[in-house]
Amino acid sequence: MRVLIVGAGAVGGYFGGRLVEKGADVTFLVRERRKQELDRHGLVIKSVHGDAALKVKTLLSGQPADPFDLILLSVKAYHLGQTLASLQPYVGKNTAILPLLNGISHLQEIKKHFGEEVLLGGLCFIESTLNAQGQVEQYSAIHEIVFGELHGETTERVRQIGQLFAGANMQARHSRQIKVEMWKKYIFINAMSGLTSLMRSSIGPILASPFGRETYLRFLHEIVAIARTQEPSLPADLAERILSNMEKLEPAMKSSMLRDMEKGLPIETDHLHGALIQLAAKKMDLPLLKTVYSTLKIYQNGRN
Ligand SMILES: NC(=O)C1=CN([C@@H]2O[C@H](COP(=O)(O)OP(=O)(O)OC[C@H]3O[C@@H](n4cnc5c(N)ncnc54)[C@H](OP(=O)(O)O)[C@@H]3O)[C@@H](O)[C@H]2O)C=CC1
Ligand SMILES: CC(C)(CO)C(=O)C(=O)O
């Protein structure tokens, strides 16, 4: 299976690197600066699961290549539009696109470009970032991809993708309910990125602060209320379940959004918080979600 990883950043670099380590046929679609970095130093992973320094194949957008069997999409949401436009030559009638972005609205955007057939549902659980040397740093025990057909069937291509990941130094799981799982991850990350970025803290001190737990639960309730209008099969007690899972996480855990803010980088608040507000009925009362979104927009506009 020929695999194209689009974006050799914290997510694409990590999972793509784990596939290269396994011996899979992997190419990274990158931009000029990242290409030079990878050509000069290789793809370096510093991880709690073991370090790696790998020689990798790269492709610059516009360079000729046959369509790939699988495209793993791992760019930030604010780069998606221009990235999709550059992918056209590499998408053929047998290509599957597996997006690993946080959020939901990118599914529509990908469909608009390439139609419904190519698109799989996907998400990942990993805590990783690129350091100043362009090395992938990966911190906590979890390093998992979840994937599946949006219609839920177990097709030949998802079987093949399962085989691709099998034996690599990472976890991968096929889901027959990938859309629901994407919504659950979206709710989880919406709340986690929102509050860790708003309070500029990892999760432990937030939950331990005087009204931290209460605020977290209220925020989750707002988010779950919107999500259930879109995906009614989500359980009514999801906010409580997510909070109880959050309490089991390592207290030092941060969202990738907070890590990006600490580096002064752009953030995905339009894609995560803004897109959710757009899905909400006008009459819904969303004080926390709107506070988070407007605070993060102040950061974003300040950068601009
Ligand atoms: N990091 C994490 O812990 C997690 C992140 N996620 C999600 O995964 C997605 C990716 O995040 P992450 O990996 O952290 O982001 P990064 O910024 O680390 O990586 C994105 C990469 O995409 C590259 N890129 C941007 N545009 C293009 C393009 N047109 N062609 C080729 N490459 C391009 C950037 O390269 P360049 O150097 O050229 O700018 C960059 O290296 C996000 O939606 C995020 O929310 C999900 C779970 C965990
Ligand atoms: C919370 C985490 C690390 C889980 O994968 C994540 O998705 C992110 O920070 O973007």
Explain briefly what this protein structure is:
Belongs to the ketopantoate reductase family. By secondary structure, this protein is α/β, with parallel strands linked by helices.
Blueprint of the fold:
Blueprint: E1 2-6, H1 10-22, E2 25-30, H2 32-41, E3 43-47, E4 52-54, E5 57-60, E6 70-73, H3 80-87, E7 96-99, H4 106-114, E8 120-130, E9 136-149, H5 156-165, E10 171-174, H6 178-199, H7 203-208, H8 212-230, H9 238-246, H10 256-262, H11 269-279, H12 287-303
Parallel strand pairs: 1-2, 1-6, 2-5, 3-9, 6-7, 9-10
Antiparallel strand pairs: 3-4, 8-9
Helix pairs in contact: 3-4, 6-8, 6-10, 6-12, 8-9, 11-12
Keywords: NADP, Oxidoreductase, Pantothenate biosynthesis
Family: Belongs to the ketopantoate reductase family.
Pathway: Cofactor biosynthesis; (R)-pantothenate biosynthesis; (R)-pantoate from 3-methyl-2-oxobutanoate: step 2/2
Please, could you describe this protein's structure?
- With 304 residues, the chain is an alpha/beta fold.
- It has two domains: 2-176, NAD(P)-binding Rossmann-like Domain (Rossmann fold, 3-Layer(aba) Sandwich); 181-303, N-(1-d-carboxylethyl)-l-norvaline Dehydrogenase, domain 2 (Orthogonal Bundle), CATH 1.10.1040.
- The chain has helices at residues 10-22, 32-41, 80-87, 106-114, 156-165, 178-199, 203-208, 212-230, 238-246, 256-262, 269-279, 287-303; strands at residues 2-6, 25-30, 43-47, 52-54, 57-60, 70-73, 96-99, 120-130, 136-149, 171-174.
- The strands form two sheets. The protein has a five-stranded parallel β-sheet with strand order 5-2-1-6-7.
- α6 (178-199) packs across α12 and α11 (269-279) packs antiparallel against α12.
- The radius of gyration is 19 Å and the shape is globular.
- The relative contact order is 0.12.
- Pathway: Cofactor biosynthesis; (R)-pantothenate biosynthesis; (R)-pantoate from 3-methyl-2-oxobutanoate: step 2/2.
- Keywords: NADP, Oxidoreductase, Pantothenate biosynthesis.
- One of its GO terms (molecular function) is 2-dehydropantoate 2-reductase activity.
- One of its GO terms (biological process) is pantothenate biosynthetic process.
- It comes from Paenactinomyces guangxiensis.
